[in-house]
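Shipment paperwork, digital attachment
Item: protein structure file
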Amino acid sequence: MARSFRVRQKRERARQEILEVAGNILNDRGVEAVTLASVAGQLGMTKQALYHYFPSKEALLRGMVATLLDDEIETLMTVIEAPDFGERSFEKLIRAFHGHYSGRLDAFRTVYSQSQLYTAADDGIDEHTLRTEIHPRTRLLFDRLQERIAGASASDEDRRRIRQLAFTAWMSALGLLTMLSIADANQDPLVHSDQELLETLAGVFDRK
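Attachment content:
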């Protein structure tokens, strides 16, 4: 039993090391550079050895998406748990989401663009991963966000409205990052600056 636990621990540490190296390659050279061969090379191991942990590039991509999403949620949770979060809360959520991915658009594309543009038969996120890994993470985030904004005395209708507003704010920030990502990938800057668009969007959800 103890040996089995140690084996699982060792395997999980190896998986995390692989995902960390893949993340570094993503940040340095872009998502196209993340291959089983490039990751194996960085780790000094063979592709065959890497298959033991990630049998395909698609499996590696799914692992990266889960890790990147955890990083995003940690960033947003830090903002949500701040003592003064209730003041201009949706604006803070938008700014935190934008700030997390600003300068890391390859990471954003990996989570929200590239992985979502394909079916499960290709390079995309399969239904099992969505249901068991991604949806529970985002649900936890919005549960806590709703709790922090609504408070204990809020009615069910108020809670529903607050959650809907929070989701709309998040989708709006997602749309902004998507446009910035497209412009960056095509080297075709938007008419308005990143900061101008952020300030306008944040102002729409400003809870004074």
